[in-house]
Amino acid sequence: MATYITEPSYTFGEYLLLPGYSSKECIPKRVDLQTPLVKFMRGEKPAISLNIPMTSAIMQAVSDDRMAIALAKEGGMSFIYGSQSIENQAQMIASVKAYRAGFVISDSNIIQDATIEDLLKLKERTGHSTVAVTSDGTANGRLLGLVTSKDYRMSRLPLTMQIKDFMTKFENLICAQQEVTLKEANDIIWENKLNCLPIIDNNQRLISMVFRKDYNFHKKNENELIDRSKRFMVGAGINTRDYAERIPALIKAGADIFCIDSSEGYSEWQKIVLEYVRKNYGDKVKIGAGNVVDGDGFRFLAQAGADFVKVGIGGGAICITREQKGIGRGQATAVIEVVKARDAYFYETGIYIPICSDGGIVHDYHMTLALAMGADFLMLGRYFARFDESPTNKININGNYMKEYWGEGSARAKNWQRYDLGEDEKMSFEEGVDSFVPYAGKLKDNVALSLSKVRSTMCNCGCLTISALQKNAKITRVSATSIIEGSAHDVLLRESRNRR
Ligand SMILES: NC(=O)c1ccc[n+]([C@@H]2O[C@H](COP(=O)([O-])OP(=O)(O)OC[C@H]3O[C@@H](n4cnc5c(N)ncnc54)[C@H](O)[C@@H]3O)[C@@H](O)[C@H]2O)c1
């Protein structure tokens, strides 16, 4: 007979925190959000910690090199998506590791045969008026010219005019070689009255840009997540098929940690990958595994050697695994159950394995709840997809700006053809949808606001660290009507503006 778990599984929205005693020392400014990323022995320190408990999801629509840089600046980490060629993924990792403050990877690039109409669309999408003209329209193509708003007059030029006919051609540009320091770059900008200085390599390929207007914004963020050589840290998603080629290539590119990316981690495929890493690299290479939703799955991955375990099936905003396959678990219950198994494992072995809660975060307070329930850090997809730094298009829909957001289980992501299930193509089905999310601006501002709420709640609970919150939080289930009671009710709202 099947095993029945009679207790229903719950989501974060069905829980609240009760306040604990907070002393006058307990103020948001003093809250420390540092949290372990990889396993460690009792009494020892983890080899890698995050400075904020946030990672960005292993998704095409979320985590590329630009996102990774923006998030590492704030103290978190991106896991760059693996649903792309090994070469492309390695290039993204390498570009994060090569990042130098003040040197920006160009996100507005175009080919010289494109038209003014294409240029206007690009400007609307990226919000930037300086556009690099490269041989292949990418950020690292051969630099052929530059277009700024000074180069064309909308009222005078036809929309069909080609970029090559009005751009500032390479021969007339002032550029610098990639060895230039930020100070030297800024001197060139001032001496030549430039707004932007392209940085190129020996083959005229664009490496980055330095902007005059960034001059005052190069101050170091003390929270930033850096390695021993002061380079930003970055993770990489991998699969259970081409790992023997992908892992060495990504290590060479500089990846700091891997995560096996799958909806289902309680599988022999994951054990094989973890064994491959331990056999070839010992404990030097760090690797997380998942996803699981119960203690059995956790223990399996812990014993197979995972450095962290990721929790969650079917809770992502774009995920339809539960309705397609009928597997999954309410995210709060999944976290609570896996944390129970983790704590028991820690008690037995002295090995603490961090838990990552992946999916199901809708409101900022859900982050605090997930941490209070014992997760050490969160993986967020929809949350980060809304920001300027996500890799997707910004689109105006009925006067509102939206960003595209699609699941890794959707046909759109699967077009990368990494999943050959050995079945008839007609038998394959989607586990994710293709959608839009409301555009929300800069990552930095949003993360600061979300974490200010987390810090504030932690103070209400009398906790200055995540581990104190995990030990001391008092959590209650809420009834359906108390959820209504907790929102604005029985009043007519004066304005429908989105609440910050
Ligand atoms: N967290 C979630 O709730 C969720 C749900 C659905 C999809 N996703 C995402 O969608 C993507 C696809 O997930 P998935 O679970 O379909 O991918 P997967 O590659 O883990 O599994 C796909 C299928 O391939 C099989 N397989 C795996 N390795 C194999 C190998 N070496 N040889 C032969 N067969 C092998 C698996 O058993 C499974 O049937 C991932 O990015 C995942 O994170 C996530």
UniProtKB/TrEMBL annotation:
Residues 167-225 form the CBS domain. Coiled coil: none annotated. InterPro entries: Aldolase_TIM, CBS_dom, CBS_dom_sf, IMP_DH, IMP_DH_GMPRt. Keywords: CBS domain, Metal-binding, Oxidoreductase. One of its GO terms (molecular function) is IMP dehydrogenase activity. The keyword Lipid biosynthesis does not apply. The keyword Flavoprotein does not apply. SMART domains: IMPDH. Its EC number is 1.1.1.205. Belongs to the IMPDH/GMPR family. This is IMP dehydrogenase. It comes from Fusibacter paucivorans.
